[in-house]
Amino acid sequence: MIAFRFHPGEKKLFKEEIDRPTAGPNDAILRIKAAGVCHSDLHVLDGEVPFLKNAFTMGHEVCGELVEVGSEAPDTLKKGALYAVHGPNPCGNCLYCRSGRDNLCDSPTRAYIGLGADGGYAEFIKVPARNIVEVPQGVSAEVAAVATDAVLTPWHAFRLANVRQGDTVLAIGLGGLGMNGMQIAHALGAHVIACDMRESSLDMARQLGADEVFHSKELEEKLKGRKVDIVGDFVGRESTFKQAQTLVRPGGTVCAVGLGSLQVPFMPMIVASYEIRVQGAFWGTSTELRDVLRYISEGRIKPQVDTGKIEDVSHWIEELKNGRVKSRMALMPKTAEARKPKAA
To answer: Burial letters for 48-62: b for 16+ Cβ neighbours within 10 Å, e otherwise?
Structure first.
């Protein structure tokens, strides 16, 4: 089969012919239906993920049709059904997995799907059967694929921050993560303030339920000294992380979600004096992925997804790098029809 693979030290993907995977006793084989493109791909290709020492097929946001299961896989799995892949690829046996925090699995042999283990920029993928989640009826493959990270990650962050009815939540940055994050906060009952540099993103935020929408340059002036309960920094650069620490209320929470920079400034005088909680968040749990897909199927979260061809993955990675991907991009087999997202 054709796969698009990363090789350590290289700045681009390589199109290669590799063997189609076969299922071991506890595995599942999916025929790829959609695979999302993510900024994490850029970090990998730019050499910013030093622990990746082996070649592998990239693509960590994955949805596919189940075509083969191992002899010891759960008999509840349905061939022909659509499944989303839980990218953290947990072992299922360690303390973190058994305590419901399987995104933090500490198995020494664990490798993330598409970020160490073979991922979705291919025709087929093999994953442990425990790490696939059935996609509800009415949720498309492209939406389910991007939901495995672009929705799951902000969902996990805001659940860790305990977003509740009546909270005021500020979403900084309305890219793939932030646009979903503001919808999640809205769905959880929060009053949502959204900001971005792009007018098109601000317009979309209004359509998707943001209560207040401001251009980033005008944010502090428009808030006029108001503080918020929770800030989601979906950019992760020096300017946004500093701003997040200054706009959250005493005792509030800053969610560090975006990975725009490898280092951001921590302001101890503000954080300590006002007992601000800075909350890290990594991907999400398999249980949360089920919750995310349910909320999408109920129409409470509407991920904005454009589609392209898997064969054009290098083009779309370059487009993402140059800021020309407006929402989220899912790549599909050449037999699928690429299309623009429906209006929310």
So the answer is: eeeebeeebbbbbbb
